[in-house]
């Protein structure tokens, strides 16, 4: 076969392969860094891209520096994060219906707040091992006070319901319901159990404690944060 004919046929074959359906990659790389609202790297956070049409989710976990990388089919996705710690679990949509047709560098900042303070008996003594609980649309926090009655938990900003304090083994109150609350910035709040006569769930036979006021004692917010909520899946398409 003449060389010219061979080159011509090879060229035709190459062109036809390039333009075959599916010959061009349908996948794109999405990568970046996730930070908490205070600017610190969000290590161990799950990043998910959820197809806005099919609901299929692609997930990965950030490394120690908050870096992540995902390969997904071209398309439109909701982008969010899921935070799982011993004291909090929840997810948050950060980008709605984002179009991903090319490789993208996408840095994300979570909308989170630090909730800190003390859990106190009615006599204002620290209530060590007492717990503070709150629930929102995508998760909940469940934090335990230390020996000084101090608690600290990072949560996603938003409204929380079913808030309550759960007493320790010596508390006169087994449980005390608290008002629903929306957290939009870092805040320091002291919560105090009421007198046993006003307690929502008093311990049978009483316990050690006493006093009256049950309203939280709140100071100025510690710091402000900065950016919107969904449900991730598992590694790779569901």
CATH superfamily of the largest domain: Carboxypeptidase-like, regulatory domain
Q: How many strand segments?
A: 18
Q: Helix count?
A: 1
Just name the CATH architecture of the largest domain: Sandwich
CATH class of the largest domain: Mainly Beta
Mean pLDDT figure: 84
Features:
238 residues; Immunoglobulin-like; four-stranded mixed beta sheet; 1 helix; 18 strands; elongated; disordered C terminus
Question: How would you briefly describe this protein structure?
Answer:
It contains 1 helix and 18 strands. It is mainly beta and 238 residues long. 31% of the residues are buried.
Fold and architecture overview:
With 238 residues, the chain is mainly beta. It has 2 domains: 86 residues, Sandwich (Immunoglobulin-like); 107 residues, Carboxypeptidase-like, regulatory domain (Immunoglobulin-like, Sandwich). The protein is 7% helix and 46% strand. The protein is built from 1 helix and 18 strands. The strands form 3 sheets. Strands 2, 3, 5, 6, 10, 11, 13, 14, 15 and 17 form a 10-stranded antiparallel beta sheet that branches. Strands 1, 4, 7 and 8 form a 4-stranded mixed beta sheet that branches. A hairpin with a 5-residue loop joins β2 and β3. The C terminus is likely disordered.
């Amino acid at each position: 076969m003449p060389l010219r004919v061979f080159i011509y046929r090879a060229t035709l074959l190459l062109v036809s392969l390039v333009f075959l359906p599916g010959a061009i990659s349908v996948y794109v790389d999405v990568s970046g860094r996730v930070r908490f609202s205070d600017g610190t790297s969000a290590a161990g956070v799950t990043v998910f891209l959820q197809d806005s049409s099919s609901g299929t989710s692609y997930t990965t976990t950030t490394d120690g520096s908050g870096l992540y990388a995902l390969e997904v089919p071209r398309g439109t996705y909701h982008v969010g994060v899921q935070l799982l710690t011993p004291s909090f679990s929840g997810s948050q949509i950060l980008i709605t219906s984002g179009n991903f047709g090319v490789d993208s560098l996408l840095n994300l900042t979570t909308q989170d707040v630090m909730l800190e303070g003390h859990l106190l008996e009615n006599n204002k003594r620290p209530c060590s091992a007492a717990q503070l609980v709150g629930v929102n649309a995508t998760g909940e926090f469940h934090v335990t006070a230390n020996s000084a009655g101090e608690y600290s938990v990072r949560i996603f900003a938003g409204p929380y319901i079913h808030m309550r304090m759960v007493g320790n083994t010596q508390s006169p109150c087994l449980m005390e319901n608290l008002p629903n609350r929306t957290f939009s910035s870092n805040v320091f709040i002291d919560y105090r159990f009421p007198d046993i006569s006003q307690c929502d769930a008093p311990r049978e036979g009483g316990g050690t404690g006493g006093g009256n006021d049950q309203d939280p004692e709140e100071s100025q917010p510690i710091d402000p944060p900065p950016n919107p909520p969904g449900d991730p899946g598992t590694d790779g398409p569901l």
